[in-house]
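User: Hi! Is it possible to get a structure for several chains at once, not just one? Here's what I have:
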Amino acid sequence: MACEFTLTRRVEFSETDMAGIMHFSNFFRFMEAAEHAFFRSLGFSIHPARAHRSLGWPRVHADCDFKHPLRFEDTVEIRLLVRQKKAKSIVYTFIFRKLNEQPPREVARGTLAVACVKRDKTSGKMTGVPIPRTIAGKIDVAPGELLNS
Amino acid sequence: MACEFTLTRRVEFSETDMAGIMHFSNFFRFMEAAEHAFFRSLGFSIHPARAHRSLGWPRVHADCDFKHPLRFEDTVEIRLLVRQKKAKSIVYTFIFRKLNEQPPREVARGTLAVACVKRDKTSGKMTGVPIPRTIAGKIDVAPGELLNS
Amino acid sequence: MACEFTLTRRVEFSETDMAGIMHFSNFFRFMEAAEHAFFRSLGFSIHPARAHRSLGWPRVHADCDFKHPLRFEDTVEIRLLVRQKKAKSIVYTFIFRKLNEQPPREVARGTLAVACVKRDKTSGKMTGVPIPRTIAGKIDVAPGELLNS
Amino acid sequence: MACEFTLTRRVEFSETDMAGIMHFSNFFRFMEAAEHAFFRSLGFSIHPARAHRSLGWPRVHADCDFKHPLRFEDTVEIRLLVRQKKAKSIVYTFIFRKLNEQPPREVARGTLAVACVKRDKTSGKMTGVPIPRTIAGKIDVAPGELLNS
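Assistant: Yes, the chains can be modeled jointly so their relative placement is included. Here is the combined structure:
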């Protein structure tokens, strides 16, 4: 059972904007990258090639509070914490810390709420389904002290 | 005085992902595009070339609730409504409607909270400043019935 | 029969980088947007929802020469010209002109070569196929004087 | 003196498109990421915060030949080779190999030609300048057998 995961990235040039800082939409891409790496760490793929092929995880909610900007070549730690696990959905908290500063500083904090769905192969229509037990059995909710740290 | 603005876009191929729908990070890019078009409609640029050169509008908060997916070539209306206007910040609500469906359907609803800052030219450091009167004088808060529609 | 198409766009904030200019990768996204709008102008979709569902147009080559930068809120005309039409592929030339300058100035020129393929629904494997006659019959090669203008 | 550099990446979900493969524009972002990592490996930043602040490296040409698609979670090696070094510009070749396939397979090959420029702080205008000796002295042209491999 896992309730957290940490991914580290360096901000790329193409992720900056003319204000000289990382464009805010990339914080959401980074959250998703951490979520997918968390799944890989459990032995799954968020979008498997074969088994569970019709399973999907659309986002139903996303938010982020931006406290300090990130700049080109900054090293950022994205810490994923499982905040809620329901039958058909998961809510993650993400804490962004800039590592190339002493001490490391929290620069942003965000949320992704994702639903587990089955996609109809012909119509593409998505219907909420229970998270498969093989997956749900490996994911645990993080203790409150981590979430409120 | 203006309290709302409407932008229409068509979803592009490069904005889709392998799930066959528009990647969720683009909803945030679309909100920002509507905000910038709103500024242009008032005769300003969010990032002027000369006057107000050191003025910036970093995002302090962003969120979005996703109700229905958007797909390639869908036409989407992004309606911006001014929810709050404070001395140094503005909060916008955005309502996304898919137009190529009868009747048009709300597919997402989001928020951007932006701060007005002055950027130091040498250090790049940003400090909160009052919104210039020429700008604040043209922006009004939307009536509650629009915001809760 | 059509041999050209013109699309106009305004450079968005999220398309700029910290050098203050449009990130070069967006010139390629703009070429593709013009190609897809060209298809729509002929009554087709590059990625149709139903008929021709398994048809795809992967890029086999792309290039671009960058002459002058584009900046935030610049208005750019992307002119598509059909340079070659073969049984299973099309080559397009794209001429980028900045319109908010007198006289308008060519800022970049690029190429996309795309193949017509059939995608196997199970494996995702792509095989080159002849361009359907309904499509090929509407596309013509541009005269040399346009291509060399 | 260095004439090559290798970067490895995993294809992310947000880099795929509805055709189920990595969007072609990301090959160009990956080339640039390898170029910037090459600079870091030499002890430089392509966009330094202080010294050489007004120095920039705009792209004057980019091309890519796409041989096989990349998919979500594929591991790709981007090998940078210095093809040309002139007084005011550098040309790089990039060879993309998919590593999660036995044997690894070349999936794409591309080029970036970049100019060394000085940016005027007030106007933003760029003028070609000789590559600083501290930088040029560390970069070497790759032997022909590597470039033609």
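The longest strand of chain D covers residues 75-85. The CA atoms of residues 8 and 77 of chain D lie 4 Å apart.

User: Great, thank you!
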